[in-house]
Amino acid sequence: MKEKLEAIKAEALSKIENAHELTLLNDVKVAVLGKKGELTQVLKGMKDVAPEDRPKVGQFVNEARAAIESALEAKSKEINRELRTEKMKRETIDVTLPGVKKVIGHRHPNQIALEDLERVFIGMGYEIVEGPEVEYDKYNYYGAECLYLGIVHDTGVFKHSNTTKHAMTVAGDLIEKGARPYYVIDETFYKKTFAQNKLLGVALGNAIQYADGKITLSVLSKEDFKKTGTTKADTDGIVDQLRITEGTETAVFMYQLDDGYKVSLRSNRIVDVSRIAVSHGGGGHIRAAGFSMMGDIREIVSLIVSEICMQLGV
Questions:
Q1: DSSP label of 307
Q2: What pLDDT is recorded for position 1?
Q3: pTM score, whole prediction
Q4: Percentage of residues in the chain with pLDDT exceeding 90?
Q5: SS3 of 49, please?
C-alpha cells in the first residue's frame, strides 16, 4: 500500500511540475484528489486493510495528500505570477494621463432599491417617516420571535461552534423585544409526536458502537419507517441523541432511500465531519454535515467508520 501511495504521489508531483496552465493543474487535482480520484479510491479501500495497519496507512494517505495539495498551491501561485508578468508586459501605462480617483466601497443593493422605492412613493405624495413612532408591538413581537428561531436552530440551541458572544447578545435583544425562548425551543426543537418518539426508540435500539465507543452509529431501513408509520421528516434530532451518548465523539445516523442512504454526521470536539461529507459530494460544517451515498450498507458503514477512525487516530 505504501508503494502504491508513493507512486501516486510521485506521478502527481511530476504532472504538477510540468503543468503550465491552471486548467492542467485542475485536471491533476481532480484526477488525484477528486471524488473519483486515485487517492480517494485508496481511502475507499481502507475497509480491506487490517485494523492494526489502518493508522499507518491513514498516515501515509494524509502525508501524500498534504504533499500534493502543497505542490498544487505552490504551482498555482507560480502560474498566476507568470500570467501577471505577461499581462504587465502587454499592457502599457501612459504616466502623463491624469489619475482616476478610486471610489472606496459601494452602496448596498438593498439600500439602492429602498431609495428607489422611496422616490416613487414621495412622487405619489407620501412622506417617509423613520423612528419608533412607526413600530407596532405585533410586528416587533412576531419579527423578534422569527429571528430568535433562526438563531436557535443555526446554533443548535446555542451549542454549535458558531455560538458567539454576538449571537447571544442578539438573542438577548430579541427576548427583550418579546421572543419566547421556552416556546420557540420546545415547539420547534424538542417537541416530538408519539410516532417520532417510537422512531427514535427504534434508532436507539439499532445503534452500535465502534472504536471503543467513540463512534455511535444507527441505521433505519424502509421497514422501520413502515412499522412506526413515520417518514424521513420525523428523523430530526436522532443524530444529536446519538451524539450526546456518553463517550461518543462522532455520531453517524443513516436512513434508507429508494436508491441509497442518507447519512448525517455530528461530532463533539475532534473530528471534522465536513471533510468526510465533502469527499462524498455532500457538505456542512466542522461539527455537522451530511451526504447521500449508494451501495451496500455494510460497505458504506465500513468506509465511513474507517474515515472517522483516521481522524481519531485509532
A1: H
A2: 66
A3: 0.52
A4: 43
A5: coil
